[in-house]
Amino acid sequence: MTLKELEAIAFTARIGLTEEEKEVFPEQISQILSLIRVLDGVDTHAAAPTHYPIRQESFLREDAVEPSLPLEQVFANGPDVVDGYFRVPRIIEEE
């Protein structure tokens, strides 16, 4: 991984990197990617797919319709409510 690729990923993920991290991370990420390439070479066509390494019983409950909270109670928890909506800080920058 190059420094340019690392900086592009960090920018996309909105992660700030120190100069020290910029020196160390490209090599570390390259090592991780090379290990993943080794796994890509493993023939798994005969292996049955599994979702969990151990058998689990269903832990989900049955859906049950329950009354919602009154809107006044919901909005009481919001620091900034305008016209029945929570106002939140903008996180998408316009270019």
List the helices and strands and how they pair.
Layout: H1 3-12, H2 19-40, H3 71-75, E1 81-82, E2 85-86
Antiparallel strand pairs: 1-2
Summarize, please.
The protein is mainly α.
Mean pLDDT: 88
Task: Assign the CATH class of one domain.
Answer: Mainly Alpha
Total number of strands: 2
CATH architecture of one domain: Orthogonal Bundle
User: Radius of gyration, Cα only, in angstroms?
Assistant: 24 Å
Low-confidence stretches: none
CATH topology of one domain: Histone, subunit A
Question: Which keywords apply here?
Answer:
4% strand, 95 residues, 2 strands, single chain, mainly alpha, two-stranded antiparallel ribbon, Histone, subunit A
Task: Report on this structure.
With 95 residues, the protein is mainly α. The chain has a domain at 1-40: Histone, subunit A (Orthogonal Bundle). 39% of the residues lie in helices and 4% in strands. It has 3 helices and 2 strands, in the order αααββ. The chain has helices at residues 3-12, 19-40, 71-75; strands at 81-82, 85-86. The chain has a two-stranded antiparallel sheet. Strand 1 (81-82) and strand 2 (85-86) form a beta hairpin. It starts with a helix and ends in a 9-residue tail after the last strand.
